[in-house]
Amino acid sequence: MANRESLRAFQSRLAGRLQAARSTGVSASWLAVEAGDARYLFPLGHAGEIFPWTHPAPVPYTQPWFLGVANLRGGLYGVVQWSTFATGGRSAVAVTEAPGAQSRLVALNELLEVNCALQVDRLIGLRGVEAFTDATAPDAEALGWMGHAYFDAEGVRWQEVNLQALSQQPEFLGIGAA
């Protein structure tokens, strides 16, 4: 019973915040996350539900960045360690290290038709274009899922990730070990 009341309270607070955002004209474009030594921006339209860290069941003979599969709210999701995948396997965090208390799983939107969740080290919040002072377009050598790089007032680089393009990349879909 307490869980049901807690869920209702949460839904009520969320509805209030959404209404306040609409009335004040706040426009958040991205979910800002930290993974490894980098910061990333996931478009809100491509990101799905956010889950607390859940230990996935390991799957043999897969890429080092594929942590396994997890049951998230009754659905089976492949779990990708984002910091390792995004750096091509050169993450500062070892794949074998247990994620910290702030780690979360960010599911891809169900409209992308890929049951996958990205393990990130920390959620930072929502960001809009107004949070950044400069942007650069991806260069010719950039991976297909990389969007613009944005820079905030402190000069910190934020990499935009096109989750829709990512969900169609053969490198991302090919979890089998070579």
Automatic annotation (TrEMBL):
What Pfam families would the database entry show? CheW
Q: Which residues form the signal peptide?
A: none
UniProt-recorded name of the protein: Chemotaxis protein CheW
Q: Which InterPro entries match?
A: CheW-like_dom_sf (IPR036061), CheW-lke_dom (IPR002545)
CheW-like domain: from which residue to which, for each copy?
Answer: 31-129
